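User: We ran a pulldown and think these components assemble together. Before we commit to crystallization trials, I'd like a predicted model of the whole complex to look at. Sequences follow.
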Amino acid sequence: MSVKTGSDLITRPMLMINEAQCRKNIAAMATKASIHKLLFRPHFKTHQSPEVGKWFSDGGIRAITVSSVSMAWKFATEGWKDITIAFPFNIRESETAALLAESTDLNVLFDMPEQASALGNQLRSVAGYFIKINTGNNRAGLEPTDYSGIDQIISAASAYPLKFKGFLTHAGQTYKAQSADEILAAHQNSKDILQQLKVRYKAKYPDLIVSTGDTPSCSLADDFYGIDEIRPGNFVFYDLMQMHLGSCGFGQISAAVICPVISVYPHRNEALIYGGAVHLSKEFLQPEQGRKTFGLAVPFQNNIWAAAEGQDHLSSVSQEHGILTLDSDWAKQLKPGDLVAIIPVHSCLAADLLGTKSNSNESF
Amino acid sequence: MSVKTGSDLITRPMLMINEAQCRKNIAAMATKASIHKLLFRPHFKTHQSPEVGKWFSDGGIRAITVSSVSMAWKFATEGWKDITIAFPFNIRESETAALLAESTDLNVLFDMPEQASALGNQLRSVAGYFIKINTGNNRAGLEPTDYSGIDQIISAASAYPLKFKGFLTHAGQTYKAQSADEILAAHQNSKDILQQLKVRYKAKYPDLIVSTGDTPSCSLADDFYGIDEIRPGNFVFYDLMQMHLGSCGFGQISAAVICPVISVYPHRNEALIYGGAVHLSKEFLQPEQGRKTFGLAVPFQNNIWAAAEGQDHLSSVSQEHGILTLDSDWAKQLKPGDLVAIIPVHSCLAADLLGTKSNSNESF
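Assistant: Here's a predicted model for the assembly, 728 residues in total across the polymer chains.
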């Protein structure tokens, strides 16, 4: 058995995190929140990692966002005490959430009165709630002027130890934007809607806050007037989609999937890599008139990935493998057993699939 | 704490397997293989489950296919002794594969001579190998008439305890077919190519076999002349894609993802369910002039899913949630806390994401 060191130990696809850049991303967003006097409640669904959580904790962060009851439970056991589950409440998890509310400051999200009564019936201690507003993403939430719907939820909740915290939105439509202007317009629209609701309900609920926070808006916007809290998540790693949207530069991307090259097919300018849908997901980018890409391939040496040499990209993925379309001289010289770094289209999904393992190599 | 029974216990998305139908699918394909005098080496990447593996074992199956060294290792520890890793060999896993070859009848796949020497250098016992041929899928393998490439691999392997078993292909292009005729044409093409290679190399390697086996071809074809072995995998569960291709009927689908309804939005004929990309993957179907679908929604009651009531389908998925577009009267009456069964587009990915848990309810 030979002694192996460094990248020799990588035999299968693995997610690699650039810890230093990741900490910079956290510090930059925390600073931005502070400048704009915003509560900063980062979304932990992107990394789902206790270790990355510790980097936030090192940065002074105490309040977090998650997307499911089970994720809230996981981070509560890691010591996080102030948690918002930023998805309309799943009434089938009322008992578990009620139990969690006994040991944490738990906030949930409602967009139907049934959710308030289901959770309320199980609560033995106070939980906070936000009302989810649809500001154009059309996934969840009440329409912005559905005051009757809002009042029905507040009324249903009032019978229980449920405290109304305010209004919350996720302008997820920014992920499908084609330009920075489009992202800023969506952000402006969300701000306006939340501001109107705040004005309308402030007299009766003077402590209410309004919360927003998709990564594209939080990265690009400089006007947060009227907003009280932001909840971005993806910014911790960023990814190809965010770079494409202009939310980040290549240097801010702090996660890549390292994949072994299996075979090369010079006659069709392609290589086969170990790394597919179960590692990177089937998420793809397809710019107008551009080629479909499931990830950008860049060199990986001495435990560091480098800038792209050209348009080398994953052009298709099957369950465990992917086809790399070769463009640059570097890529055309790849051979079996080489490692490449794939910048994922959507780091949240890659991290969910592969689990987050940090690489704290000093080179990073 | 109230006592809960049956479906009350389902609080989050879960994969449900109809064991009886699954066993029927196994028996049907085993019978077909037997009628056509084919070796049957089912692909275990679809289910990756020791329990489903046992159902194959109950059906007399002793030889299996997997798609990675780690999957081979997993099933070897479950007692499977005759394993083909049906993907070009990852030379970074040479040591592990060599170790595995000591306790199992292991076959690997080569499409470059480097793979043969890398594994060969580590082997302390015999391993078999197939040469992978590209019959139109354009993912991996040598071109059908690349005799020089074939001979280079055989020559490289001959220095080691590597036994040439024959030629293998995966006509994965059938998954993108638009009709049964197109699938059968791809199957015919693969057969012809493998047959030509067999004729050419049979004199020198009289024991060589040729192996094929995508689920669409194995389900639809009735002519396997010249083929020695089939390796379908997906047929164990089937799914929406296979139904769309005509490989199966609805009744043969034996896997569904059970999801709680979170909220309903009658004004836009939509519902929000707990069940998204991390449960179902981002794989979608988009028939020509048809709507994009990430899964078909059907009723789920008494631990059984029923036939579709209409065109109720998942029209979009985010990380953990999906939007159901409501068509039927049944779907339009859904309310928070109800359960729906989602027939996945691609059961292999859903099973990989959720893990395979069988439901051995007597109703099934």
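The longest strand of chain B covers residues 255-265. That may be worth checking against your pulldown data before setting up trials.

User: Thanks, that helps.
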